[in-house]
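[[Per-residue structure]]
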Amino acid sequence: MPWVYLLLAGIMEVGWSTTMKLSDGFSHLGYTLATIVGSVASFLLLGVATKHIQLSLAYPIWTGLGAVGSIPVGVLLFKDAMTPKTALFVVMLIVGLIGIKVTA
């Protein structure tokens, strides 16, 4: 179950970062509230996960899920650029996260 909490925390990380962008500098109340709720939920889920998963494993996976998950959101929703070099580094990030998990 701790891994489910960590996965949900990573998903919430993507969610709150997306709503933060949509809040346009916190000028839209609904998106601002969603950002706050999402970030608190993400932190709480991470906290629950770290009761059973080492911090040195949980934290990089949590931030990595947020980083990797935000990329397709940025490309699809906000028309961010995705160059082949960027894609290569995303793959390297994923490989790094897997490596951290495997060697923990």
Observations:
- The helical segments are 2-22, 29-49, 55-78, 84-103.
